[in-house]
Each structure stands twice: as structure tokens, then as C-alpha cells.
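User: Please run a holo structure prediction.
Assistant: Happy to. Please share the sequence and the ligand.
User: Here you go; the ligand is guanosine-5'-triphosphate.
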Amino acid sequence: MAVTVVIAHRARVAGRIIGERVVAYSCRRQVHTESQIDESQEVVRETAWTPHTGGKKSGRNFIDRMRCTAIGGSGGNGCVSFFRDVFVPRGPADGGDGGSGGDVWLEADSSETSLSCVKQWLKARPGSNGRGKSMHGARGSDITIKVPQGTIVRQILVENKEARTEDPGLGADRSSRFLADLETQMARRAEDKASLFVHYPRWEDRNDVSNIRLPAEFKAFRWAMANAPPLSADLTSHGQRVLVARGGLGGMGNPHFIGAEDRQPHYALRGLAGQTRVLDLELKTIADVGLVGMPNAGKSTFLRAVSNAHPKVAAYPFTTLNPYIGTVAYDDAAQITVADIPGLVPGAHRNVGLGHAFLRHVERSRVLVFIVDVSRPEPWRDLQMLRDELDLYRSGLSARPSLVVCNKADAGDVARRNFEAWRLIAPDLNMVPVSAMLGKNIRKATHAVRQMVESSRM
Ligand SMILES: Nc1nc2c(ncn2[C@@H]2O[C@H](COP(=O)(O)OP(=O)(O)OP(=O)(O)O)[C@@H](O)[C@H]2O)c(=O)[nH]1
């Protein structure tokens, strides 16, 4: 009996029999190729096959959903030092504080169109250690990652146990395991109080830190980190920022521990680790108008005709594989943005033909423009299919203000007859016959769209 093997690209691969399938995953990438092999060959192997990454032009770099890990810089350690001078052999404590770690920020930028600009690990710089002569360490620099407008940021909460029981080769979730390990490490550290301190050389055994009261600021920071609410943000406007991982607090130098009992503290606090968050980023394009249609209906041709965008146009389905945004400029300087999303097929709401990946990009459009190929037999059925798919994906989505663009009206008698028949069937439907290819009746369509957008803004 043949067994299907899914082989992942390059990476460490591990196998597991799921029913009759041997499935291998790579850590970062999902399925790349499938092949039928004998049961005897069920051992998973790596493939020499290299994925075609394509260029920016081909749109292969477009990413609208990803997981990444943000790690704030760790705080620098406090310093254990004593003032020394010619006649001062045992001066007072003068260790500086460590600098705080840098923060990780995400910022919406209208010039970004894809999440491909975001790396999987986002690490801010650590703070510098404190030094003698009361010199405090420098703060670690922040990092700001630009993301497209319309990016939704959600924190993924990882249950320690769950992540640990995961088979290391499978599940492809390095970041979750990293976070779980980090949490365990931190918990261990919290129990072992001595490990929170830096000790003067060879004083580790002599320092009894069990009775030392930790500074209130230090305790408050640790509490805030442990009880931080789950992060969730929607970056909708240009310049909007969200702090995704806070840098760790710098450790306090030994002067902070001078007390009545200990005038010469031989210890200082270590800096705290920065916050670590596993994030799920999802891009939901923001445009005033979303073009919805079946593959090959002429959506890209329409967008080219009405706006400054240049999506690829070709006579085969799924030419467009990621959303394109165009701006329609009117004579009076008014502007509206239009998103061309890839074609929808029956079952798109169940993710057939990558439906979910496409539908998420019309969710935020105020106005929908259905592009229907009027030269196809019974084009009203296509419209019904599109409406059903939208509603099954998000209830009420198709009820938004909409215009039906009957495209390819230039395609001879069939198109004309279909259009007239449709008029009779649905006299109240907001329809405009258009030839996007020849640029006919485009003005009428764009003005109707503008009216709808403006009334939806009110
Ligand atoms: N006759 C005629 N052909 C058109 C018209 N508009 C588009 N076409 C043709 O229809 C084909 C598909 O056009 P696209 O604009 O790529 O269609 P699409 O809906 O973006 O297709 P997908 O990328 O698959 O979603 C191309 O060969 C176009 O030249 C039109 O108004 N009249």
C-alpha cells in the first residue's frame, strides 16, 4: 500500500504516521511537496527541492499572517564596587545601576503592504551593566518594526505543560517552546533568591541574601511583568504604535543595600530579563472599497482602469494571489482606496481555494463592488454565489452597500442579452454595465462608488 509523504524543505524533519499518511513538518515552513512512496520507505527524508521564492513583482513575498516572538532587551546588572583612594582603603559602596533593556514596538506604516518585512524574532538591545564610581549603565536601544496599516496583533498564550509535551520535531512551534523554557527558567530563578544577585568576587558563599528585602521598584516590575494582560491591538492608522515587549529593569547597584546591619554590601541586583511575547500578526487590508468576484471576472482590469494600481492581468484564473490597493482620484481631488482581492470560488468560506486568506481582506471595506462577468451564462448565479460565500464567512457581510459591475459588457450579444435579462429579473439591483478592458462606463461606476463611500462615512 502506498503511503503519502509530505516532505518539508531543508529543515529538521520528523515523521509521524497519521492514518495512512506519513507527514513531516519543517519548523518554519509547512507542506511543500507530496509524493507517493512505498510503505517500506516510510522513513522521512529531506528533499533537495528548493522553493521558488519569486520576486516582489510576482507577489510571492506577500505575507498576511505570521507568528513572531518579541523579546525585550534584558536589564544590565547592578555593580558591586567600593570607593577607593590613597587614604581610603575601605570606602563606601559606589556601584552603579544597570541600564534598562530596550523595548520592542510595532508601528503601522502606510508604505508597507505585507508582513514580509517582519522577522520571526524581534529582539531589542540589552541595557549595559552598571560600573564603579556610581556610573550607571546605558539603556538598551528600542526597536520599532514597521507593519502595514490594518495589522491585528494578538498575543498567543502558551501553557507551559502543553508546549513541553509537544514532540520537538513536530508542531513547528519553536517560539512556544522557547517561551515555555524561559518561563521555567524564570520560575527557577525566582525560587533561588541568591541567583538574583551579583556577588563581589569570592564573596558568594559569605553573602547571605535570604533576609535581604528586595527594592519595591524591583518587586513592582516583576509583578507587572507576571500579571501583564494579554496583548491585543489593531493598528489601523499610520503612525499608530504598540509596545509588544518591554525591556527588563536594570539591576540596582550595591549602594541600594546599605543598611544599619550591613554598611558594606558585597552584592547587587542582576538586571531582569525583558518581556517575551509570542505574537500572531494578521493583516486585514483597510480600503474603502473591496472588489469581490470570481476568478477571471476582470477585477484587476477594473482596478487598473479606475486607479493608479497595476495588478497583473491575464486570461487565466488566480492571476491575482494577494490583495492590491489602488487609489481612485476624482477631479475635485477626492480620493478613495480600492482593494482587489483574489477570486473567490464556491466553498471559499470553508477555505476552499484559500478563501479565508482572501476574504479577510474585504472584511473591513465599507463598500463592496461585485465584479461579475456578464458574458457568462446566468451571471446572476455568480453574484448569488459570491454573496452566499461572504455571508457564510461573516454573517451580514454581503449586506454592506454594494454595486454590481457587469463587466465584459463589450463581449457581444451574449453579454447584452444577459444584462437585459438580469435587469428584468432584478430591477432594483444597483448595476452598471462596464467594459473594464475598453474603459467604457468606468466614470459611471466610479461615481456610484464614491456616493456610496461618502454616505457610508456619514
Ligand atoms: N472582453 C473583455 N475582457 C476582459 C474585460 N475585463 C477583463 N477582461 C479579460 O479577462 C481576463 C481576466 O482579467 P483579470 O483582470 O485578470 O481578472 P481577475 O478577476 O483579476 O482574475 P483573477 O486574478 O483570477 O482573480 C483577462 O484576459 C482580461 O483581458 C472586459 O471588460 N472585456
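The first helix runs from residue 160 to 165.
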